[in-house]
Amino acid sequence: MDPMFLKGIEAYEGTGHYGELIRRAREAGRPFPRIWHLFAFKPKVTNALSEFTQEVMRGPSPLSAGMRELIAAFTSRGNFCLF
């Protein structure tokens, strides 16, 4: 995976949930969403973003969760972003 533009954030060893997810993914040699670095760096600030995302993707909606994931993946691909 290419390095981020924010090297200090990527290098930060978070102690919370996302820091642990990053460590596990790295140990297993698996790619992971880069936004996890931001969540590990500033968990208090990014909790609201995480809650918002979960509500949008999993909360009540006329669209199924699978359809919402497909829309997100399509949008990410169009922005040359790994989903």
UniProtKB/TrEMBL annotation:
InterPro entries: AhpD-like
Gene3D superfamilies found in the cross-reference section: AhpD-like
Origin superkingdom: Bacteria
Identification of the protein by name: Peroxidase
Species for this entry: Hyalangium minutum
